[in-house]
Amino acid sequence: MPTGTWQTSPLSATDRTRLDDLFRMLKDESSRFLGYPCNRNFDYSELARFLAFPINNVGDPYVPSNYHLETHAFEREVLAVFEGLTQAPAGETWGYITNGGTEGNHYGLFLARELYPDGIVYYSQDAHYSIGKVLRCLGLPSIMIRSRPDGSIDLDDLRETLRIHRDVPPIVCATIGTTMKGAVDDIAGIRSLFAEFALGRSYLHADAALSGMILPFVDSPPAWNFSHGIDSIAISGHKMIGSPIPCGVVLAKKINVERIARSVEYIGTLDTTLSGSRNGLTVLFLWYAFHTVGVEGFRAIIPACLEMAAYAIERLFPLGVAPWRHPYSNTVVFRRPSAEVTSRWQLACQGSHSHLITMPHVTREQIDELARDMERPTSLHASCPITDRHPSTAQPSDDDIVLVGTSEHDLLDEVSQALAEAGLSIEALTAVAVDEGSVVRLRVNDRAAALRVLNQGLDAGREYGRASTEPGDRALDLLSRIDYQQAAPNSILVRLDDRPGELASVTHQCHEAGIRLQAVRFLWRGKASAVIELNGNEPERLRSLLVNRVILN
Ligand SMILES: *Cc1c(COP(=O)(O)O)cnc(C)c1O
Is residue 47 part of a domain? Predict the structure, then answer.
């Protein structure tokens, strides 16, 4: 035994119990870990013996240092794998293993600031919260750009903003897989804006914390990596790969890094990294993952995750929570369920949305159990502003207005025109049209006025049943006809601006084109816009008719 060994007495019984309790809690909670993008399917027990050394990867991974208890050689191998995955040109990037996505973003934007001290950073509303913090740390001026409803950066807003600041080098921090909706910012679009305004001095950092380990394994992914013109990228290691200690990677163009490197005599190496002392153990985890699961293993795991996401959508769809995802993402967004459910399943929430992320450890059984929890009467979307449940099981709430019509008339079109003419704004809506008839259930900002308008319309000869809050058996029966399972693949999401008459203009366009809308419902309603989901009898024609409004698929 070396002298002065630090563990002089064994743990007390009380302390041991505390650790046992903690262990039990972690084990229990990790069986319902659906909301955060951290893979818990890993086994690094073979590496436990390395806990015996004060491993420290201080300094630049490519430069030898005086500190020899390090894993730099392994780090360089891991970096080489990430270079391959991000299509970095051979020998032209530099990087290191970070403490996570945040440090990678910090490094990328630090590099950008050193290159363009007079630059302005542009990032979207849906960017990760780490970006705002990093910008404060770096003292960089920045402008937040609007997001589109699908979570990606709004290029029109970016264009207008760049136009105003043409004299300043733009530093764009693009999100490759937004935290809430899994959206990928349009890299090609951003670069064409640089070209449009002849912005030669520009920088493009990619925050690819989760999706940087998904997109390499997706068929025809959107542009996201070095081959598409990014200057640096941050990816988390503990997300898709999985690690008991958070970690990540940052890669940047070597030519830029060399311009800012400084050497330090004390450690005998280049001080190129943000942290001084760096974790050399997480390097071993990542190396181990790439040498056991391997890149080929991830090539199988990622499609399985996407399939599980598709399964989750199929399973949640009948619950009326409007689940959706980007085709390249395992993040499934849906209407926020009760606090009880979000806490039990550790679902991340933002406003009226929640999401689950089908990481490799997520099973069908867990999704089924979540769905059962969400179906329970006590768990009915209590915290959600729009209460739209499965029509066949839910009684419309007191605030709802229900109308029933025949199949010969376009009930939805008539109702939305009538409300638009009266300047009334629709807050929630579900509509079904089948051969046996049609029904519209809706909520408006002024219910009394809406009832008056709709019943006047009826008296004036409109062809729908009396608007009422008593849905009756016929309405409930019609509402139950909608086949959500079948409808899901054909549905399109359409954006409405927040103006009275927006829905009316969509329904009328369909009516004029002879497309029958079989199912319509409001997914969500923001301050400036709303997203509705449409199913029509001719999905392709519907899609092309509304192409300017379609936000997904
Ligand atoms: C998780 C995440 C981050 C932060 O990564 P950490 O590894 O938690 O520091 C940054 N950006 C996005 C888009 C993320 O999803």
Answer: no
Residue 48 lies in a domain: no
Burial (CB < 10 A; 0-12, 13-18, 19+), residue 5, is exposed
Range of the domain at 500: 393-552
E strands, 336-388, in order: 348-350, 353-357
Same domain, 441 and 355: no
441 Cα to the center of ligand 1, angstroms:
40
Q: Is the CB of 248 under 6 A from ligand 1?
A: yes
Instruction: Give the chain's mean pLDDT.
Output: 87
Burial group, residue 372, by CB count within 10 angstroms (0-12, 13-18, 19+): exposed
How many angstroms separate the alpha carbon of residue 439 from the centre of ligand 1? 44
Kindly state if the Cβ of 236 falls inside 6 Å of ligand 1.
yes
Tell me the residue ranges of DSSP E strands in 164-202. 170-175
Residue in the structure block whose two tokens are 């070597």:
254
For residue 105, which of 84, 81, 129, 126 has the smallest C-alpha distance? 129
Q: Is the pLDDT of residue 484 over 50?
A: no
Contact 416, 503 (CB under 8 A): yes
Single out the residue in 292, 310, 342 at which a domain terminates.
292
Is 246 close to ligand 1, i.e. is its CB under 6 Å away? yes
Residue 74 falls within a domain, yes or no? yes
Measure 325 CA to ligand 1 centroid, in angstroms: 19
Instruction: Please state the rounded mean pLDDT for residues 121-129.
Output: 97
What is residue 391's predicted lDDT score, i.e. its pLDDT? 34
Please write the tens of the pLDDT for every residue from 511-541: 999 998 888 888 766 667 778 888 888 888 9
Amino acid at 178: T
Per-residue pLDDT tens digits for 23-65: 999 999 998 999 999 999 999 999 999 999 999 999 899 988 8
Q: Are residues 400 and 546 in the same domain?
A: yes
Best mutation site among 102, 126, 233 for ligand 1 pocket (most ligand atoms within 8 Å of CB): 102
Which region among 86-95, 367-376, 395-404 has the lowest average model confidence (pLDDT)?
395-404
Active-site positions read 329
- Cβ of 102 less than 6 Å from ligand 1: yes
Q: Is 123 a residue whose pLDDT tops 90? A: yes
Please check whether residue 419 is in contact with residue 462, taking contact to mean a CB–CB distance below 8 angstroms: no
Question: What is the per-residue pLDDT across 262-274, written as a single tens digit (0 to 9) for each?
Answer: 656 666 667 789 9
Same domain, residue pair 74 and 121: yes
Domain count, the chain: 3
CA of 318 to the centre of ligand 1 (A): 32
Q: Do the domain assignments include residue 255?
A: yes
